[in-house]
Amino acid sequence: MTGKFIVFEGVEGGGKTTQLELLRDWLLGKGQTSSILSKSPDIEVIVTREPGGTKLGAALRDLLLDTDVYGEKIQERAELLLYAADRTQHIEGWVKPHLERGAIVLCDRFTDSTIAYQGYGLGLDLELIQTLNQIATGGWKSDLTLWLDVDVEIGLTRAKNRGKIDRIEKADIEFHRRVQQGYQELAKNNPLIIRIDANLTRDKIQKQIQDVIKRKLIEWM
Ligand code: T5A
């Protein structure tokens, strides 16, 4: 099997981080007698995220999510360009080399986040964002995108209960509803986006994800 790039998307608090880690453990067979990848034991499974998957990205992430960057408001197009810079560094310097070695790369957010947040959420030009995504990735696409579809209120409550709130989580509820609408539109137009009901318990969400991945692994292998 060649490397596979699996992306997790969705509004705040859908449980992407939680589910990515559960999926990695399941793929590697942690706590089980055999791994789902037992026929290909050498396959590497790595977890990464945007923004922040590289050292440069980690610095950009701090700037992007900080509630008070040197006391200045980040301009919307500056924000867009910072996400693009993070993505270029991440894809070229980290994701592609792993995929070329045959790894399964599980990534928390990718290009659809920019369409949903900066496009639908902030109202920046969608064509401009598509062009920028194209430049940042060199046209690279995910092999599969799992959209963790959680009600906006439930997701924000989960994120708030966790403790510290970042700059974007602080945005008003209408912003998050527009982001949600963005994901709905994206899923309508792209069969590679699979909707996962993320309003359920951690175990029930993971079960849906594993069922999708089992089907996909058969197809890919
Ligand atoms: N962004 C990103 C853009 O605007 N444009 C872009 O192009 C990109 C790439 C990233 C921010 O950047 C923005 C979007 C984001 O605002 P982030 O910290 O990565 O910042 O934010 P999120 O991706 O939203 O991460 P969160 O950590 O907020 O949410 P997750 O990862 O979806 O959820 P998770 O797993 O951390 O869970 C959140 C809390 O809920 C609990 C967990 O224990 C945790 O406390 N939880 C559940 N509780 C009940 N039931 C369940 N099923 C639960 N699953 C998890």
Protein topology:
Elements: E1 4-9, H1 16-28, E2 45-49, H2 55-65, H3 76-100, E3 104-108, H4 111-121, H5 126-137, E4 144-149, H6 152-161, H7 173-189, E5 193-197, H8 202-220
Parallel strand pairs: 1-3, 1-4, 2-3, 4-5
P1-(5'-adenosyl)P5-(5'-thymidyl)pentaphosphate binds next to helix 1, helix 4, helix 6 and helix 8.
Description:
The termini are close together. The protein has 221 residues and is of the alpha/beta class. It has helices spanning 16-28, 55-65, 76-100, 111-121, 126-137, 152-161, 173-189, 202-220; strands at residues 4-9, 45-49, 104-108, 144-149, 193-197. The protein has a 5-stranded parallel beta sheet with strand order 2-3-1-4-5, sandwiched between helices. It has one domain: P-loop containing nucleotide triphosphate hydrolases (Rossmann fold), CATH 3.40.50. The protein is globular, with a radius of gyration of 17 Å. The chain contains 8 helices and 5 strands. α1 (16-28) packs across α8, α4 runs antiparallel to α5 (126-137) and α4 packs across α7. Bound molecules: P1-(5'-adenosyl)P5-(5'-thymidyl)pentaphosphate. P1-(5'-adenosyl)P5-(5'-thymidyl)pentaphosphate is lined by residues 12-18, 49-51, 65, 83, 108-109, 113-114, 117-118, 158-159, 162, 168, 201-202, 205. The site of P1-(5'-adenosyl)P5-(5'-thymidyl)pentaphosphate has 25 residues, from α1, α4, α6 and α8.
- Tell me the name of the CATH class: Alpha Beta
> What count of structural domains?
1
The CATH topology assignment is: Rossmann fold
Give start-end ranges of low-pLDDT stretches. none
Between the first and last Cα atoms, what is the distance in angstroms?
Answer: 5 Å
Mean pLDDT, as a whole number? 93
Helix-residue proportion: 40-55%
Q: How many β-strands, per DSSP?
A: 5
Distinct small-molecule ligands in the complex: P1-(5'-adenosyl)P5-(5'-thymidyl)pentaphosphate
Helical element count?
Answer: 8
Q: What is the CATH superfamily classification?
A: P-loop containing nucleotide triphosphate hydrolases
SS-based class = alpha/beta
SSE order: EHEHHEHHEHHEH
* Shape designation: globular
Query: What would CATH call the architecture?
Result: 3-Layer(aba) Sandwich
Instruction: Give a quick account of the main beta sheet: strands, pairing sense, barrel closure.
Output: 5 strands, parallel
Strand order of the largest sheet: 2-3-1-4-5
